[in-house]
Amino acid sequence: MNRNQSFGALALTTLALLLSACNNKKTEMTSTTDTTTTTTTTTTEGGAASGSSAGSTNPDTLVIQESADIPTLDPGTTYDTGSGQVVENLYETLLTYQGNSLTELAPLLATEWKEENGGKTYRFTLREGVKFHSGNDFKCADAEYTFRRNLVTNTSDSGNWFISESLLGTASNANDDKSITWAKIEGAVKCDGETLVFTLPKADPAFLSKLAYIGQAIVDSEHAKKIGEWDGTEATWKEAVGKDLTGSPLAQNPSGTGAYKLLKKDASAVTAVAFDDYWGDKPSIKNVIIQKVPEQAARLQAFQKGDADMVETGGRPIIESQLKGKPGIAVVDDLPDTSAFGITMNQAIKGDVVGSGKLDGAGIPANFFSDVNVRRGFVAAFDVPQYIQEVQNGKGETRNFLLPDTFPGYNKDLEAPKFDLEAAKSAFQKAWGGQVWDKGFTLNVSYRANSIPAQTGMEMLKKNIESLNPKFKVNLVAKEWSQLIKDGNEGKEAMVMTGWAPDYADPDNFVHTFYSSEGYYQPRINFKDEQIDAWINEARTTTDTDRRNELYTNIAKRAMDQAYFIMMPSAPGILAHRDALGGISQDTFNPMISFGTGTYWKNLTKS
């Protein structure tokens, strides 16, 4: 397992969502379901049916319809929003986010914590009187087991790379990094009585944010061992390294401390019921049903009829054209955008995409984009304001950094790159000592097939570049997403429109990913900027907020000067729900929570 593999899983799902107006980020599944209405059966916690009418008219039942199934219910491998929306309501983490804030953390299974030893030691006081769904009491041993299990397994399908990076100093597991020993794992997380103690090899300012990620939710260790999970001992730990947990015993039979417990999971639906022994405020809605309905038309019809409280809509164009203003439907707009998108410019292109491989008008050299003036020309030739109008219906703002402007570390006072064809022309005239302007080039660019935003953006770029010089040619090719990801990761694409969504609310999750010579996007961009690397590494180890902000501003300025990416604009979120569903608003929406409402099920109401 390596960091790039786990990053790739998230990047793929993220881009599939945000570059398509009509496709959800999850893989669409086939189904024989073609009905447009839904009859639901509510249940008591004991599992007895209490037959009722359609969910949207029943205040005790929340009905959600989506296009795909739920891959796993094991927190140790949850790394997709489909799974996360369920897992975060069955399980709980030590910390969570305070309201809609991305910077303030609130207690959950921990009641307080103390930082010691210059940020290399954390001591957590754990909540008392908490029960798991199995009836077992929550103890420090459960938290110790959970984190050790995550460090041991740490598969490419999980987000455990970033907790391993904090606690062991490496994103890899013991199969790929032989420096990992049981002693290191045991020393990184242990109980001191009922106090949980983390020991880090160096300070990590993002550590607390990482603990709020649902993949670090606390599992019931006694229950887990009983049903056949790793026994938590040194004698067996090597057998569990890298073990696939997607269909694990815990995925089939979860036991968390959350406000809801699993009732049933099959190919067509996941059903959860309120947990009677939940330690916190009891949920208002007793039953939650997530149904798999692949056909968008069927989901939209069910939603408009009131047979579902929320559905996977297909995004802003569908909501604005088909749902907004319809009876019984409420729309919440201008939600914070926590993703960042850009167009990469590969400085060491592999494969035959370079054409002739020369500056002769029939191709480009493999290192075409290593000239800063080539990059500056492309950046100045992309009309971001036009993209906002044509693709995003006028919603969104230009950006100066591949970091969401909702995140700490983003400096809104820096001016974003401007669309300026004269500046683009001037840059191209200087590029490669004047050869680019004199000889021209043919550039082959791929975009994701069936993605209207990606196609439109690339067509805009092509038109503007070719308008500068008749010797400039840009050929656009539609590619299946899986192939585009594969070729991009292998460095075979000259330019790719791509992006990132956060694992945890810290700027490092974006800045290192995009700009570090060791980051995920390195194979697609192939640049190394020693000054930026030094600033990134310093920001990763200092807990001084002001200094971190200064460093990120420095990185943003230099990255814009060097034109490493064409930066796409922000894209404010939008969601629709039945107006009988309460608890959804801009004030309560936190984009770091997986479920579409931006809050937990326990905080929702129905009338």
Task: Walk me through this protein's architecture.
This protein is of the alpha+beta class. It contains 21 helices and 20 strands. A five-stranded mixed β-sheet has the order 8-9-10-1-11, with helices on one face. A four-stranded antiparallel β-sheet has the order 4-5-7-6. The protein has a three-stranded antiparallel β-sheet with strand order 16-13-17. Helix 12 (372-380) packs antiparallel against helix 14 (421-430), helix 18 runs antiparallel to helix 20 (530-539) and helix 20 runs antiparallel to helix 21 (545-562). The longest helix has 18 residues, at 545-562. It is globular and about 75 Å long. It starts with a helix and ends with a strand. Residues 1-54 have low confidence and may be disordered. Residues 30-57 have a biased composition (Low complexity). Keywords: Signal. This is ABC transporter substrate-binding protein. Residues 28-60 are annotated as: Disordered. Belongs to the bacterial solute-binding protein 5 family.
